[in-house]
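Predict the holo structure. Ligand: adenosine-5'-diphosphate.
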Amino acid sequence: MKVFKFGGASIKHAEAIHNIKDIIESFSEDLVIVISASGKTTNALEQVVDTATRDKQGAFQQLQEILNQHLQLAKGLGDKVGDAYAEQLPALIESVEPYLKQADALPYDQLYDQVVSLGELLSTKLVSLYLNQHGVTNQWMDIRPIIRTDDNFRDGRVDWQLTTAAVQEQLLPHLNQQHVITQGFLGGTGNGLTTTLGREGSDYTASILAYCLPAEAVMIWKDVPGVLNADPRYFESVTKIDYLSYKDAIEMTYFGAKVIHPKTIQPLQKKKIPLYVKSFIEPKGEGTIIKDQSEFSFIPPMIVVKPNQVLLQLSTLDYSFIAEDHLSYIYDQFARSKVKMNLVQNSAISLRISFDRDERKLNRLLEGLDAKFEVRHDFPLKMITLRYYNEDLLHQMKQSGQVILEERMRNTAQLLLKE
Ligand code: ADP
Ligand code: ASP
Ligand code: MG
């Protein structure tokens, strides 16, 4: 049994949805099909949440626009799909409305998950209806009672024991002569609240389900031929990588390669489940196979660019050694503010740490650090990670800005540059 994952780009218009039907039909076995929100719906729902905290009526208008777009998409798949979808919409909206109404009374991250999750509910209902009406029999499932997480909203941590049991008991029995269609990105707490797994988290959902089933393979379908050695939006000449080890994949994605969510790899690695990254535009192409092998014969140098970085420099106020006396306090502040470190470098009395810029988290972090250290920060910066680098490439990358920090390991070099 395989787990498929289709992202936002693969269901953004009617033609794209016809295309994924063809892909699913070309496989004879029953599949678990994980689907993200259509197109840019998640961004639009983030806007709704932001608006709701100051202007409820405005938020409801924005929400209505999202629903209209989905209804139009459904109608584009035929009158029958359009009518059936229109009947199902009210129930979906009802689950969000009460949260929007009390937007100012809820913690922001909790509100975010209750509202933004609508994107995946809307898209999976739509695709499920369409497929069922075209002879591709499937069962729609709400993943929230199945993927059980803690209440760390916007970055829910999976309870593997409860999730494995729920997948086995609730999902697996439906995989009999039919596919299961379910939402990416979502989970749920024991109290019935919705959580999300972090932006772009649908790849991770596919890997969680594959781990719990367990599945023989995961296939994620993208608008690129596979994993490339650099982001094709920013680099002209790129090469597809045919095979990649779990280790290379996790290193690349952690440092910002947008093609797969970084958390996807670990569960697959644990069960040695291969991950295929394939093109929904050319489904017959080989794609990239990510599996358990330490050395593949040829891997071109890989370039990963992560923009929007902040560099924080913390210096002790009394010349005490930073690494001996202060590290645990600093790391604790980062953990509390939910800021993930990217690069860390220390001198005798100061520590430099880079991370993704997020205004809310940064303010929370500075509250804990300002009084104890001399704090300076630098922005905007970009981080470039080069895996299997050579001197020429490193030199070339250094020309793209003023180098603030450089670090080299055996296989990997990293630069932090002023943009
Ligand atoms: P999904 O539709 O599954 O959400 P994404 O848009 O998140 O897909 O991921 C696919 C995109 O990732 C590609 O369109 C490409 O622009 C980008 N990308 C960034 N880095 C890479 C890379 N190294 N290889 C392939 N694609 C990459
Ligand atoms: N819809 C979510 C997002 O845009 C999850 C995903 O696409 O993987 O972040
Ligand atoms: Mg995506």
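The chain has two domains: 2-291, 302-418. The mean pLDDT is 95.
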